[in-house]
Predict the structure.
Amino acid sequence: IWDAQTKFPVEVPVNREAMLAGLMGHVGGKAAASESDVDERHWKIDAIEDIQREIQEKHDGGRGHALVSSEDLSGMSAADLEKLEHTLEGQLQQLKDEEDSDRMKNFQSSPLRRSITSERDPSALFGSEVASRGALFPDVDVDDKDPYTLFGQEKDRGLHWDYTWSGSAGGPRDESQRNKIRHGTKDKVAEELGIRWGQDALKWAQQLKGAQTMQQSVLYTDQTPAAHIGEAPAGGRYLMGRYDVLATKVWTDFDRNWDFIKGTKPLFWVAHAAGINIGESRNASDFPDFSSQDNNNSAAGRLEENLFVEAMEHIIQNIAYAANDLKVEHLIFFPFGMGAFLRNLSLCDARFAHTEELQRLRRVIARAFIKVFAKHLSSNTKFHLCLMFEDMEPQFNSDAFLRALADDSIEEVRKFKKRVIVHSEGDVLHLAHDLAGTSPNVMLVNGANRQLIGNHWFAGHAKRAIDENMHRRSWRMSATSYLLNNYGGRRERDPRRPDELARNVAALGGRVEVIKGGSEEPSERPVQVRVPSFGCALNGSLGSLQPQRQVD
């Protein structure tokens, strides 16, 4: 405002929301509220269209499945949109449950088998007594050379294990608890940002509560040649480039059982990186970039594993780069990109309809990940691997990583496994909270959505996705993502600028690090993958990924 005596402008603290409400009151009474309602309906319609699209894909391309048109959605009331979204979420969950049932049948008919049967339920053994032991079932005889046996908790295999949570999968008690928390987090984000949900907040970012923490955000944007091929670049529908890593400082509000955490909530880093989607559905967005046409069937594709594995290694290299740059002491990892993005690969490449063939690919990926971390992650960093064994898909992924770590043929892996801690039924967010209580340099890896960080965490679907569920349990993570997504400042269907995320990070007061190549650049030659029968062998030349400068 202008000082009446000095005629110079001076800054005064204001309640921004009250000021804007007052201005809108002068120019139209309820205009502010109606504007917010319009924004909310836009996002609700976008979310419904996403759910419909997923349902359509699961109905064999949508043939014979009626969808509500965008025009009809636009004419619906907010209450009707809410009801429709709830109905569609139920239909989608039913389809996912049917797919899970089919996968279980395929597993039961495959030669793969678990080394520990349901009769040897580890839930009876978890706790401090087990935490001090090397293996849950040392009496179980397992032939580690048998490729059809799924590795589990029956042996320590030279690894340090933490069985604190073994036998307890965690998660909310029921869906009503999940819904209550996501609604509460949504309200908390709006309160802390001083906005109505759906309004633009990025332009006020550096004036917000907690802005100092948000200013620590770092974007590691990859500008190597691979980052400009196919669907890899940012822009259009993508906020993040395929190989980008976004680091933000957050805390968690809810533990692994979705119970509120009382007391001090220490800050830690979250490294948002996106897995490569080659098998979420028959229209998996990244599959065309890593496939060739099947000569025997013009309508089918064939995954080029060499290219796919090299790209996944590229992402892991950049995660290691970010961790080294931020002097991370504890890095928390999970089977990154090995869930939904592989789950329906058989719809794109029929070879993977066989459970054992998909498991072979999982083992290739896990072996590649461990090799990259062993070579490029700072020797001062402990590696915490959260594995689960209760359900089928997590058991498959755990087998892949345990086999990768059990391979003593590679010297770097032998050395690396000494600083690996395997957390049975580990929850990455809860573990980060615990570790951050003793170390300021903790980082967990999140499997992020390239189009919208956190995706539609505030909606009711995506009940198992790590990205959405972590955001639901941390208002600070959700608020930071709200700003970096520029949520409310644009329609979700609007195309992104290639540098939009970099601009948003800068607007928040963070910094941008460009990975241009040189010593950081992954090999331009495809990684050579040799997979005799059920074995896995990877050979590749990967450059150093140490930061080029010291970070204050």
User: Anything to note?
Assistant: Residues 1-37, 116-137, 518-552 have pLDDT under 50 and may be disordered.
